[in-house]
Specification:
By secondary structure, the chain is of the alpha+beta class. The chain is built from two helices and nine strands. It has one domain: Metal Binding Protein, Guanine Nucleotide Exchange Factor, Chain A (Beta Complex), CATH 2.170.150. Bound molecules: zinc ion. The site of zinc ion has 8 residues, from loops.
C-alpha cells in the first residue's frame, strides 16, 4: 500500500488518547458493550482512528450481539492486514496503512463471506456519509 504511516511508539502516544493507544498499539481489547460503535447505526464509513484509512462501510455492519462492532466485509482487502494472533488461535486484524491493532476476524459471520470482523470501537472513527 502507498503512503504507509510509520511513527515511533512515543509519537503514537502523543497522537492518540490513552485508551486509543492501549487498544491500537498495545492490543488491549475494550470491554464488550462499552464502545461507542457496537450499537451504532449511522450511515457512513468507519476509518482507522490512527491514520484515517477507510476500513468498513456501515452497509457491512451487523448486530453480532457480541458487544463489539462487527462487519462481514472490509471496504477493501487492501485496507487490512490479517496475521496469526500471538495466542496461536485467533486471527488478528491490523490496519494495513499504519499497523494499528483493530480487532480479530472469526469464521462465524453472516453470508456472503461467513466472516465476522470483530473490532474495537476505540480503534475506529466514524464519518457520516455526505448528505448531499
Ligand atoms: Zn491506520
Amino acid at each position: 500500500m502507498e503512503n504507509r504511516v510509520i511513527k515511533s511508539d512515543k509519537e503514537w502516544k502523543e497522537h492518540l488518547t490513552t485508551e486509543q493507544y492501549l487498544v491500537t498499539r498495545k492490543k488491549v481489547t475494550e470491554p464488550p458493550f462499552t464502545g461507542k460503535y457496537y450499537n451504532y447505526k449511522g450511515d457512513g464509513i468507519y476509518r482507522c482512528v490512527s491514520c484515517g484509512n477507510p476500513l468498513f462501510s456501515s452497509d457491512a455492519k451487523y448486530d453480532s450481539r457480541t458487544g463489539w462492532p462487527s462487519y462481514y466485509i472490509p471496504v477493501s482487502e487492501d485496507s487490512l492486514e490479517l496475521v496469526p494472533d500471538r495466542d496461536g488461535v485467533r486471527v488478528e486484524v491490523l490496519c494495513k496503512k499504519c499497523g494499528a491493532h483493530l480487532g480479530h476476524v472469526f469464521e462465524d459471520g453472516p453470508q456472503p463471506t461467513g466472516l465476522r470482523y470483530c473490532m474495537n470501537s476505540t480503534a475506529l472513527d466514524f464519518s457520516q456519509k455526505d448528505a448531499k
